[in-house]
Fold this sequence. Notes:
The chain is mainly β. It folds into two domains: 1-108, no CATH class; 194-518, no CATH class. It has helices at residues 194-200, 288-292, 510-518, and strands at 56-58, 61-63, 71-74, 90-93, 215-222, 235-238, 253-257, 283-284, 315-326, 333-342, 356-362, 379-381, 387-389, 408-410, 417-419, 449-459, 465-475, 482-492, 499-502. The strands form six sheets. Strands 6-7-18-10-16-19 form a six-stranded antiparallel sheet, covered by helices on one side. Strands 5, 8, 9, 11 and 17 form a five-stranded antiparallel sheet that branches. It has a two-stranded antiparallel sheet with strand order 1-2. The radius of gyration is 28 Å and the shape is elongated. 49% of the residues are buried.
Amino acid sequence: MRSTLSIIPAFGLAIVLFACGPSNPGGNNEDCPDKDLTQDVMNCGACGNVCGIGELCVRGDCSGTCDPGDSLECYDGNPVTEDVGPCRGGTRNCLPSGQWSGCLGQILPSQEVCGNGIDENCTGVADENTDADMDGFTTCDGDCCDSVECAQPGLVNPGAFDAAGNTVDDDCDGMVDNTQTVCDMGLVSGSTNAVDYAKAMDICQTATEVSRRWGVIDGRFSMTNGMGTPAVPSHAIRTIFGSGLMPQAGMGFTLLSSGNAASPGQTNPVHVDFTTSAQHGLSSPFPADWLAAQSPPGQLPNAMGCPPIMGGTAAEDPVMLTLRIRAPSNAKSFSFSSNFYSAEYPEWVCSEYNDFFVVLLDSAWAGQPANPTDKNLAFYRNPAGNIYPVGVNLAHGNTGLFTQCVNGRTGCLGTSGMISTCTSTSHLTGTGFDRSSPGSCDSNSLSGGGTGWLQTSGNVVGGEIITLRIALWDTSDQRLDSLVVLDNFQWSVDVSDPGTVIGKYNRVDPAAVEAALIH
């Protein structure tokens, strides 16, 4: 095998983010025995000596320029695959500009095509049907990186999702960084197909029970005990809510409501005032496993300092979206955005009437950070360690997560308090929650308020089938409706800190929040 020049491929040049010190062609690689100090831009002439932007490692020396007419033999693949099967090195020429060209004429490993007698992945065996990386996918299953074809073969296979920005074809579809984000065009607002609502949240791929590819296996709507059918107007797919709330990803988002999932002027379903309420006349038991995991068992949780929930025997006007999803093989967590609104604000903040929004995750994840023991990811933990379920009571105690509202008195019919973390009412405009309601705690009060975009996340085991139950309901009565908008579902190769935090599109000043918490 001839000498090669290995670089990080990026338009033929080594693109790194660090400057390098003097190279040491005579250095040894005792501390990095698997590195070639003569060619490796990350270990050029010495272990850990990184070449600068635009530089190559040429015979153990970092070099950003060359003399026109010079040439070098090169190979951008794993060195052990060069001259194996069809894989061959190429030539890098010095351009008239004094810069090195890309590696011209090289043939790199590609996905094995079984049955043609060719060793496309350059392992030394043609048509091998192996699972060398033990990721559950063989080369004939379409695993484009089973051993030496890429840096982390165990994370690359047809069951993975294509993680954006890593320049790797994670899912072996032949394209790099092509994560699908738009799959909700043309969805019918009043659809009764739960999988359509997953697409509106940007979960774009479907799967089957026996397939090892990731995606939504099935979905359904029910009431909060998993039985029955919720009111048809309680869910909708929208491209806009009010006059200003737009999707964070794709072309639409999912709405769930204890009333009608519509702002004024929208149809299928039509808008019904959230204060006078739709009152669908439905009720069901709470999610049994979630309720049993509370402390004490069977008692509805509430924010710190707020009174016990009144008459909490059943969920009123409930709606629950249940999705069974196979997680990608390389995923460790997921996140999505939610925007919670309630007509309970501001009068009934921190009262015995607290509408609930829960996100219950069933997963085999047993690592750290742990998912919540009650399975509910829709919670916020403040700096003092106090737990607040996502709902109108986030407005109590200046948590900073209730931002789309009018500052002033809260809880004038509940537990009296003040809020100073409202930053805007733009997400309320045109929704029906922006209706003027003078005398409701303050002369400038509106008929509702909201959190703005929040981000909810949880941890998963790669390749497992998770169940996600997203539910909303009125508590104690069927008046003063609440609503939640769901969008921008994403997988991640990193572990998350499960729970709900303020979203990146809806920031508040951390110093102001901290000061509010202190006072």
